[in-house]
Amino acid sequence: MNRSILLLVTLFWIIPLLGAAGEPEHGHVHQDDLHRFHLGFGTAATQVIGESGIAPGLHLHVIRQFGEQRRWGVGLGYEAIIDKHLHNGLNLLLNVKPLERLAFNVAPGISFGKHDGEMEVLPAAHFEAIYEFDLAGIHLGPMIGAGIDREDAHVSVGLHIGLGF
User: Fold this and answer.
1) DSSP per-residue string spanning 34-50
2) What is the number of alpha carbons within 13 Å of residue 158 lying toward its C-beta?
3) What are φ and ψ of residue 112, in 5° steps?
4) What is the Cα–Cα distance from 83 to 104, expressed in whole angstroms?
5) How many whole angstroms separate alpha carbon 82 and alpha carbon 21?
6) Own/partner pairs for 51-54, CB < 8 Å, 24+ apart?
7) pTM to 2 decimal places
């Protein structure tokens, strides 16, 4: 299991380097997504720290993009980790694209779910890095994420699918 996560994380960082090798050298960016809004969906293998096994994780976000090249945005996000506790999170997102296809989401918010039969709502934070390729208007690529609240932390590696509108 740890080898699989290490392999996925390694591939996440190698793919952008390979893509950068084929970028034009004339100094300006060919931004694929000049839409005002971005709707993203992700599915991931998630490891909740301190628990055994990998759980499926789902991410959904909508981002309002700003700037001439749509290099930053704000939005809302939802995350679910489907394990014995069913972890949920709602976040306010700050999205930054330092490179044409590389995006980072920093997201303060709340996590909520039942623990020991009682509903808990806790302050939380979620972080995500995404490398997107544009395939016929669909943004597709690897993602890596992490989340933390007062009681739990998790890391996830998966696939991001997005649409601009």
Assistant:
1) --SEEEEEEEEEEEETT
2) 23
3) -150, 150
4) 26
5) 38
6) 51/83, 53/83, 54/1
7) 0.77
Nearest to 75 by CA among 34, 51, 40, 125: 40
Q: Read off the tokens for 82.
A: 């489907």
Distance CA 12, CA 4 (A): 12
DSSP letter for 25, please: S
Task: Name the nearest CA neighbour of 158 among 8, 6, 7.
Answer: 8
Cα three-residue angle 145-122-155, rounded to 5 degrees = 20
- Whole-angstrom CA distances from 146 to 26, 62, 65 are 35, 18, 23
Closest CA relative to residue 113, chosen from 142, 75, 87: 87
Q: Distance between CA 159 and CA 118 in Å, rounded?
A: 32
Closest CA to 134 of 106, 105, 158, 100: 100
Pick the closest to residue 65 from 57, 73, 53, 54 (CA basis): 73
pLDDT tens digits, one per residue of 11-44: 555 555 444 444 444 444 445 557 899 999 999 9
The answer to whether 95 and 75 are in contact (CB under 8 A) is: yes
